[in-house]
Amino acid sequence: MREHHDHHGNHPGSDHVLDDHAHDDIAPDEHAHDEHAHDEHAQDGTADAALAELLDLDGEVLRSYWTDVLTWVRRAATSTGRGRILDLGAGSGVGTIALAQRFDGAEVVAVDSSQEMLRRIRVKALDLGLAPRVRTVRADLNVGWPAIDPIDVTWASMSLHHLTDPDRVLRDVFTATRPGGLMAVAEMAEPLRFLPHDLGIGRPGLEARCLDGLRNDHAHSLPDLGSEWSPRLETAGFAVLSERTITIERNPPHQPATARYAQRWLRRLRSGLMHRLADDDVKTLAILIDGDGPESLQQRDDLQLRGVRTVTLARRP
Ligand SMILES: C[S@@+](CC[C@H](N)C(=O)[O-])C[C@H]1O[C@@H](n2cnc3c(N)ncnc32)[C@H](O)[C@@H]1O
Predict the structure, then answer these.
(1) To 5 degrees, how large is the angle CA 71–CA 121–CA 151?
(2) Which residue, judged by its Cα, is nearest atom 16 of ligand 1?
């Protein structure tokens, strides 16, 4: 893992509230209960389960990145007592659980629009004996801000770029944060890549072609992906303390979790790009993803892990 610090840098990283578990103390949104919404939830649940698996693999395969950045955030937080930590767009809870483990005694509130993600977080918290300190709040942040102030630390990892108006949400976080409190934003500067240029099968450059297709899609669907959050945090009122650019670059020994991550990630890419991939690339992907022969992801020993993430740390003055 290589790292660059910018000029800020002293390194050592419907209604707005939807229904959720009884553990939440936020009023349920009645619109979430109509029948149509129910069908959509079932479909979303399947898609979210697949995404949750990817997010969990990110936490497992990139454990050293997660440990590094969350320890950095923990050290920057002045208060150690019974504060409130917010995991914004918490996903499967990799951050939520790691924060609950680092902020001993604090309440950690995981906010997400997905029921399935929040269910998984509750299971993890229960298994680890953290349930009394982990609260899940189902909320669509595009619609409004849930009543969860005051907050001491907010962690928003790969989530702001999903929102229709992240600047409004940053202002909401600012208002909900105690003076002196922290906000940390993790962003994907470059997506993870797993494959060597020449796989020994198919046309070289398969992964680069897939990622070009993804970039084209994201230019429309996720215009804030890869955004620089420092100026936007400052516009919201925060003072930026530091920004870290972390380059993930590893040639891992053959590890089942890395192979599984590559397989699930490429499967997701393929399903989004299927109609635009050339026939020979579709065939090569099938050998990699669906096969179990020597050229499959499961068996290969030439996977490489590369990607770039930024983490911006800011304080409410
Ligand atoms: C890429 S995942 C990141 C999850 C987690 N922070 C991580 O880094 O592992 C983005 C998460 O944001 C959530 N999300 C997307 N749009 C949202 C919205 N409008 N309100 C609340 N959560 C949202 C998704 O459900 C998903 O769990």
Answers:
(1) 55
(2) 162
